[in-house]
Each structure stands twice: as structure tokens, then as C-alpha cells.
Amino acid sequence: MSYKIETDGFLNDLDRVVRARRQISEHLNNVAETLTQAESASEKASGKLGLEREIEDLVIASKNLRQGAFRLLVLGDMKRGKSTFLNALIGENLLPSDVNPCTALLTILKYGAEKTVTVHFNDGKPPEPIDFKSFKQRYTIAPEEAKELEQKQQQAFPDVSHAVVEYPLPLLEKGVEIVDSPGLNDTEARNELSLGYINNCHAILFVLRASQPCTLAERRYLENYIKDRGLSVFFLINAWDQVREGLIDPDDADEMAEAETKLRKVFHANLIDYCQVDGADLYEERVFEVSAIQALRRRIKNPAASLEGTGFAEFMGSLNTFLTQERAIAEFRQARTLARQAFARVQEAIARRIPLLDQDVEALKQRIASVEPQFGQLSGIRDEFRDEIRTMRDRKARAIADSFKTYVLNLENTFEQDFQRYQPTELQFLDFFNESKREQFTATAQQGFQQYVNDKFFAWTLTAEKELNEAFAQLSTSAARYGSSYVEVTDQITEKLTGQKIETRLGSTPDDDSPGWAKWAMGLFSLAAGNFAGAALAASGFDFKSILLNFFTTAGVSIVASAVFGAMLGPIGFVLIGLGVGALQADHARKQFTKAIKTELVKQLPQVVQAQWQPIYSAVQECFDAYEREVIKRINDDIQARKAELDNLLKQKESREIDRELELSRLNSVKSTVSTECQGLEAEYQALLLH
Q1: Out of 364-378, 387-401, 411-425, which region has the weakest mean confidence (pLDDT)?
Q2: CB 476 within 8 A of CB 388
Q3: Residue 42 phi/psi, 5° resolution?
Q4: In angstroms, rounded to a whole number, what is the distance separating the alpha carbons of residues 88 and 94?
Q5: Is the pTM above the cut of 0.90?
Q6: Which one of 14, 140, 422, 528 is CB 3.0 to 4.6 Å from 174, fit for a cystine?
Q7: How far is CA 146 from the centre of its chain?
Q8: What are phi and psi of 537, to 5 degrees?
Q9: Burial letters 470-502, b for 16+ CB under 10 A, else e
């Protein structure tokens, strides 16, 4: 599929989505306000209908939609032109992109009426506003310094968390936020910080360079942190226009075509695995040959300049389709589901209330008493589902923690083969005997070991993700089953109270009939969307990937690697001394060095397992506990709301005569208003589908 769309088209489509988001948010808010006013009026009429949960969910969803943004995470190795690409994307030379300096901070670009930069710290200091010139001067470093810091496993600015750049740019104003990361080889600690944003972004823009097709570091990163994780990744092969510079005869069309063909084959072989989505090959829609510098030069001279020939038109067309259609539709579908659910709840409550208006106090008391067994059944369904969640929790927590134990203890089986690619080529074993160079030798060796440990630990999280995916898929199925049983009981309650048979819901689906708590437990919509840095609800329930990632980045994996390597240094040193100078100058030294590390590593692995088994077990348990807390709270809220609905009516009947006709008119007016807002929301949703 080929896309030929320019910047203005992208901005127009984003603007359309922003308007739709605003309109849908307003519809949700109007429904919430209508129900709030209705409940207030009900206090002086026939009593509240128990719609507090619906109101709360609508308010949260409306707010999240109104504040919603498309978040793009830019990844790539150092000196790939990430900042130049971003400057071209936003149309201004905003970020540091000189020949030598490297961006050294994770930077979040978002819309602001004024140009501002705010640096956020992780040591308790308050955020610091600074000007752009100072920002560029203070927080960029030379590649040589970056390399030295990398070898020493040090961050350039360890006390800084990130920077927020606000700028009055059209792309940002249309609801796009961009997270610009430092180079992948900045430090392992900084890599982990970038990883913390992966699951909270809508798409990853991975910048490569045509002159350095898929380096070892890039392949390592893609293999360990991107592959098989369900992430949406766009690959930007930058500086494609420089392919010509490497030719013997840059004017030879055949030589140029041959060079480009070979280069495309290399990138295709390395990237194809990351462009498979639900069995479909999206390579043509995910990989783009671009020239960021050409695009930037054109846009600085003329913001409306054509980007034809730079690769940006094709890329932005694909990104446009992904954001304004795929992601926006999914986002608005959640809002539609929530609105439909609220309307169904209002219809149900009003349909139950109207027949009860004719009952006298004693008859109403008898009818309320008659449904006590059914309320007991609702509580029973809640308890059964809770027990199933807990059983699943305990089984999966042990299985995942045990899988970690097995995985770690088996590392020795492949260590010698795996560790070969982690030994830095610049590792000079004779430096071990030079006191002035020993520190550098140790830092270089530790860096390789750190990368090995991080990659291996993070690769294991795929096993945990698979286990949790299966678990929440089963719980989703169970939620649908329990929800169906729950609806049967609530229908019985309505029939016993009103004396009227519930008609079969023609044309409805199980999803339509499921109670709100079951839909939440099934993951049909997210009320916590927009939580940028923490665990959020996702399609399968809670975002357990964030929980695992938080464990990986905060539970001391880096500390474990450092401690293990530190404990091994002494014995490894004796091995190096025993080899002799002649052996240290040969390739034999590398093999012996690897064997020595393996020997000591094997001694340390049981301690690693012992130290990490319980934290992993507890992290998985917390994932299910958090899910259980929210599900059970929602079921309890629903049961209490249904009881309160009846108690409120009884209390009103005991205290005053209710004007049936006036109340009938009021309730029907509420239902009509909510229906109109839901129809308006549906129209916005359908318009987006048809565009």
C-alpha cells in the first residue's frame, strides 16, 4: 500500500479526530450531568436510582478523552538523526541536532501556548524551568563523552528524570505528544528508563541509518525489547539520500539501483519479523526510507513545502492512518460502549421504578422482602468470581516465579555461546595487570555482563506475559459467564418487583447484556487510559505488562548484575593471572575468561533465584489482587446501588405522597435526554468510521 499524503493532510485528519474526541467527551459529560441532576431531583421525588457508579465512570472517561493525546516514542541508537527527524516532523529546528552533540535526556514534547522547557529531577528537587539555549548547552554531550559514560555504566545526568518541552506547534496542538529518548547505548540504566514508556505509547518510531544497516546494538535491542510484545513500531531508515555518496560513480543509475536493492534486502531481512500484526505482513506500511535533513531544510524555508522525495509523505500517510483511524476508532469504541452501558442501566432502573410507583408502602415492603434471596445470589456470584480470581492468582504466581527459577538456573547451559557477543571487542586483558587501566578493564567487562543479564532477564518476561495473557483471557471468559448469570438474577428481581415479564432482548449481543462490572472485567473499555507512567487498564484487564516492567526496572536487576559481577571479580582475576602474559595476548584468553565467568556465575545463580523468586511471586499476585479489588468493588457497588434504589423509593413513599404522573414525565425526560446524547455520540463514531 502506498501513501501520498502531506503534512497539511495529516494535521487536518488529526484536527478532525481532536474535534470528534472533544464532541464525544462532551456527550459523555452531558450524560453524566443529566444523571447527576436526575439523582438530585429524585431525592425530592421517588428516590435516587443508584447511578453513582455510572456517573463516576462517565466523568472519568470524559476527562480522559478531553485530555487525550497520541503518544509517540522515538527510539534509536546514538547519531541516527533522531533529533533531526523530530525537528523535520514538527517543522522547526527545536531540538539539539548538531553534528557532534548527542541528546542526553529523555524529553517529552507537548503543546503549550508559550515556548518553555522544564527539567524534572529524581532526587526530590522541584522542576526547573530553563530557556532553550541553556537547555541545548547544558544537556547535550559529545559522542566521545557518551561512549566513556557508557563504558563506565554512568548516566550523563543521573539526578535528572526527564525534560518537558512545551511548544506552540500545530502537530502538538492537534493532540500529539512525542517522547524523545537518548541513544540506545547511552547506558543500561537509561535504556531501562526508555523501556518504561514503551507500553504507555501508541506507537514507537525506531530511527535507523542507511549507512549502518541494523547494527549489533540495534538488533540486540529489537530482539530483546520489541519482538513479540504486540507493539506498534514504525521504522525510519534515515539518511537514505546518502546512499549515493558511497558509490564509485554516484551518477551511474544502474550502480545506484543495485546498491539500493541490496540495502533494502538487508533491512527487510532484519525488520520483517517486527512488522507482522495478527498474521498480516505490514512491512510496506511500517518501514520507510527518509531523509530527515532534506525534509527539515524544506520545512524551515517553507512550512508548506512539499516533502515529496524525502520519504516523509509516505511515512506520515501511514502514521496518519494508524493514529486517526485504527487507534482513534478503538478509543472512541470504548466511549461508545460506556455510553451504551449507562443508557441501559438508566432504562433498566426507570423501567423498574415506574410500576413500583403504584404500590402502597406495605405491598412495596413485601415485594422488596421477596427479592432478598436473589440479592443473596448476586453476592454468591461475586464470591465465586472472587474465588476464581484468587485461585488463578496463586497458581500463576507460583508458575511464573518457578519459571523464572528454571530459566535462571538453565542459563549455564548456553552461557558460553550467548556471552560471546557481549564481550566488548575493545576488551584488552593485559589492561587487567595495569593498575591505571584496571578500572577501565573492569568497567568494560561489567558493561558486557550487564547487557547479558538485562537481555536475559527481559527475555524471560515474555514467558510471564504469555502466562498472564492466558490467565486474563480465561478470567475474561469467566467474567462473561458470571455476568450472564448475574443478569438472569437481576431480571428475576425486576420481574418479582414489577410483576412484569422481562422481554427477550432481540438483536442484542452478550456484550450488550453484560452488567457494567463484567464489561470492565472483560476489558471492553478502559477508564484509566491516559495514565502515562503507571499501571493502567488495558484490553485484557489490568496492564500487567507495566507491572512486570516496573518490577524489571525497579526490583534491582541492575543491582543484581553488579553484585554478581563484583563477587566474581576476585576468582576471575586469579584465572587471568594464571593464564600468563602469552595466553592473554591470544584469542584463548577470551574463551578462558568466558569459562571463568560461567564458573562463578553458576555459583551465584541459586542466590539470584532465592533473592528474586519471592518479589516475582508478589508482583504477579499484586497484579491479580489489583484486578480483584476493582472487580469486587464494582460488583459491590452494583449490588448496593440496586438495594439503595429500592430503599430510596420506600423511604420516599413512607414520607410523602408521590405525584405519579409528574414523576413518570420526569423519568421519561431523563431517559429521552440520555438517549439523545448517546445518539449524538453514535453519530460522531459512525462519522469517523465513514471518513
Answers
A1: 411-425
A2: no
A3: -65, -30
A4: 9
A5: no
A6: 14
A7: 29
A8: -70, 145
A9: ebbeebbebbbbbbebbbebbbebbeebbeeee
